[in-house]
Specification:
This protein has 189 residues and is an alpha/beta fold. It contains 7 helices and 7 strands, in the order αααβαβαββαβαββ. The relative contact order is 0.16.
Length: 189
Amino acid sequence: MRIDQWEARYRSGERTETDLLAAPTPLLIETAEKLTPGNALDVACGTGRNAVWLAERGWHVTAVDGARPAIEILNQRAQERGLPIVTRVADLEGEDFRIEPASWDLISKCFYLQRSLIPAVRAGVRPGGIAIVMVHIVENGEEVTATRAAPGELRSFFGDEWEILHYFEGRGKDTAHKRASAEIVARRR
């Protein structure tokens, strides 16, 4: 889906109500609860269900999304809760977005597949830090697309310099996403 389509969905309220009611991603909760809060980057954050949860637990969060209406909703949510979340509207596929190397204790990229962004996510995690990546995968004979990964594809992005703490393919626990997905939690060595 193009960014203008996402913006229209947020403006119409179609995604807003769903996103505001959605709990944070269970895998993010399970993982982050075991970590000492530090600097977190939430890529393709939407209205911030994960960013808000992390900030409420002491993480210094930067949240980035291409949809301005989503970031506006996140800013309002953060302000209402007194949370100092740094937000940014950025074209994740363009050159105006850059993940600084070895700068983050945690990077989450949940349910947004952009293969060209994976190397920057990997490089952006500090040694000892964690990457949480979740993507939708093809099912029932579907073709691999820009938004649907092949089975096993997500795991192939994380090589020897990563300790795989969790990998799963199938229907996950995140009630906001009904499609089959692949999820990985990896620690940079």
